[in-house]
Input
Amino acid sequence: MYPSPAAEGFTVYTKTDCKFCAMVKELLEEQPTTYVQCDDFLDDREAFFAFTEAKGAVNHKTFPIIFYDGIFVGGFTDTVKVVKKIDSRHS
Output
């Protein structure tokens, strides 16, 4: 029912009017990223969060919900750390 996180690159589950979602889009401009707009999924929040929890986002109920190479990263702040590690490997 919901798109699974991509096996490669970032997958960002996002929603409209989310400040941190907008910030993560700027952060990931140079990264391979799949965005999943979740506004329509939130009619049944419990089912959506059960899906993300099953994918590894345990107890994460805020947006954005971010995965890297199919593995749960966290939110915006956690993603900043991952991007810094990626950038340091490429410098």
Summary: The radius of gyration is 13 Å.
